[in-house]
Write a structure and sequence with these properties.
Elements: H1 6-24, E1 27-29, E2 35-37, H2 49-68, E3 72-78, H3 83-87, H4 93-96, H5 100-108, H6 119-124, H7 131-146, H8 149-156, E4 162-169, E5 175-183, H9 188-198, E6 227-228, H10 234-245, H11 257-264, E7 270-272, H12 279-285, H13 292-300, E8 305-309, E9 314-319, E10 324-329, E11 332-337, E12 340-346, E13 372-376, E14 379-385, E15 389-392, H14 402-411, H15 419-431, H16 445-452
Antiparallel strand pairs: 1-2, 3-5, 3-6, 4-5, 4-7, 8-9, 9-10, 10-11, 11-12, 13-14, 14-15
Helix pairs in contact: 1-11, 7-9, 14-15, 15-16
Length: 453
Amino acid sequence: MFGLTKNDLKTVQNKLDNQSSYLDNNYFTTSSGQVKTLKDVSYSANHSVRYYAQLNNKIDTMTKIASTQGLHSCFLTMTLDGYFRDLLHGDYTRFDKLSDKERFIALRSTPTSEKLGEVRQKIKARKTLTIKDLYNILNHQTARYQQSYAFKKLKKENANYMYIRTVEPHKDGVPHFHVMLYIPFKYIEQFKKDFIKSYPAPQNRRIKDSKKFIQDYKIDNQELESFQTDIKDTTAYVMKYILKSFMDVKNQKQIDYIQAWYIKHRIMRCVTSKSIVPQWVYQKAYAFENDWYHLTDLMNDSNNHVEWSREDNYFYFIDNYTGRELIYQYGKYQVVYQDRVIKEIGEVKEKNINVKVYDKTPTKWTKKENPIPTYQDYNLIGYFVKSNGFKQIDKKPYQMKNYQLRQYFESITIESVNPAHYAVTHNLMIDRGLIKSEYMIPSDSYEAMEVFQ
């Protein structure tokens, strides 16, 4: 089920039980004298009801704001080519049958960065991929989509847009994305064209209610199965997919396979564009002002005063319609009405200030010493500083140029250095064509590996 075994499900359940036990059995006392557990203040998706309530509030706010700004809703589904399923089992048969052009497109759609797992390198080395690798391929394709002409044109004209992205597994565990995208109506056709280019799988360009495929990226205003523009209740539509990934923290004690899939593979359930009011502001104001939409409404109204600073750990809202002020600074939150504090929570904490220690002697009275490079036979061997003397540069054999390597090798013997080091240096001389001899076997494989790296 979703690529998981019963043992996987049991392992994830034990992990959650241990986390829940730790959160329940660790207490602290608040400034008002209340005793709370770590679970009471947790925002964990797997243990706290507050996480889902916050996410629900955020999505509801984004969809309503998008509606008030006149943005059109589009529902996108991104899937992968079928041969990626085979790579989960190390089967490259279908991949090898691709034409040179198709293989080029396939490799271009996979990530090469360390952040996303260097999937392209794995494919070239014929390694077996994982579910997280396939998830990162979709992430890479989505990053390409967000850098496409459609998004650049939108940003250049300072037009607003929002998106809510969820991920869902197929029955075999292969992930696919669902995205609710809010954009001005006039940009839809350009977004369709760049959508097809960014997600090369054939099913992503299939015309709705037809088995034809779009040729040469010509859409002609036709509706795509993976790019729907006729969504009515967008909040309910996107929440339908998000609900599947969450467990009922209050009533559910045993996790199911689809929920375990996210935890086992460490996959984020929901990703959104930046909200108008940052999440950290909402979380701090949650005790008295738990409506994200109201905070956003205050921000959008030019008659109000709104400011915040993450670095200085404060925010300040003035609601001129009701006469209230919402103030947070260094751990203390207040609601002020007509210069009177009507609600207050927390206490002011001292701000950590990093004080730099300076020398009392003015720098203009001191003479700066520049290190003097020192060479031997035209090779840089170190630097000389008057106050500290000579400092030699320590290079490993593989870092040396041929002339310096030859000099170094002639200055050592197998008795004077570590035998493994001598053997690796000897072999390096052979590789560079500086000597003709037979390879030596290093007695210390770790040092040999270190030198060659």
